[in-house]
Design brief:
Blueprint lengths: L7 E3 L15 E3 L22 E5 L8 H11 L4 E5 L15 E3 L5 H4 L4 E4 L3 H9 L4 E3 L6 H10 L3 E3 L7 H11 L3 H13 L2 H13 L1
Parallel strand pairs: 1-2, 3-4, 3-6, 4-5, 6-7, 7-8
Helix pairs in contact: 1-5
């Protein structure tokens, strides 16, 4: 229609998104991040083991096997925090010295985390990378295979196939992800260079002015 202007706010950025030419109406602003305003303290084991945050999907997709493999394989060499979301935490058995809860604010954990293990949802994946934390993705379904491919292509983490998931293989994939901090830092810088939500607001206000 005459007088209409097109604007697409694209909540990601290079290098997580593949470098390509986009129409001028498409504006990358990086991820839209949210966390509870009141930070809940998390009691972590006080030792020098690297810290791993494991996140199940908030939309139930029966991906508790990721958390179970993490608890079985990672606890000896890593400090582990698991947020189960759509998975009943009692189904995972004795967590040992790991922290297991349905929901915890991720930001205070991400500030200290060394790797995030997740299903490859765009929310948790981009949130981890926004803090420069590499990701080990076990894609479970929907768009998560594509998200995992973006992570690997950006050098920001590793991918482990769902059918190959085991405690030993997950531990090996996390070990490899630890070496991807430089790639995760590049993604973090790419997100920040977009101008973020402030740029999105500016463009929307300019559109309706």
């Amino acid at each position: 229609m005459a007088g209409w202007k097109l604007l697409t706010i694209y909540h990601t950025a290079e290098p997580l998104d593949y470098p390509r030419r986009l129409p001028p109406s498409v504006v990358m602003v990086g991820p839209s991040l949210w966390d509870p305003t009141a930070e809940q303290s998390v009691d972590l084991p006080q030792d020098n083991r690297p810290l791993i945050l494991v996140g199940c999907s908030s939309e139930f997709q029966d991906d508790g096997a990721i958390a179970a493999a993490a608890l079985a394989g990672l606890r000896e060499r890593y400090r582990v925090v698991v947020t189960t979301a759509g998975v009943d935490p009692t189904s995972l058995g004795d967590p040992g010295d790991a922290v297991v809860a349905r929901f915890l604010p991720h930001v205070p954990i991400l500030r200290r985390a060394d790797v995030v293990v997740c299903h490859g949802g765009m929310g948790i994946t981009q949130k981890a990378l926004a803090f420069g934390v590499p990701v080990c993705v076990v894609p479970w379904g929907r768009d998560q295979l594509d998200v995992a491919a973006h992570v690997v292509a950006a050098g920001a983490g590793t991918r482990l196939g769902r059918r190959r998931l085991s405690p030993a293989r997950l531990t090996a994939a996390v070990d490899r992800a630890l070496a991807c901090r430089e790639g995760a830092a590049r993604v973090k810088a790419g997100f920040e260079a977009t101008g973020g939500v402030a740029k999105a607001a500016d463009r929307l206000e300019a559109l309706v002015a």
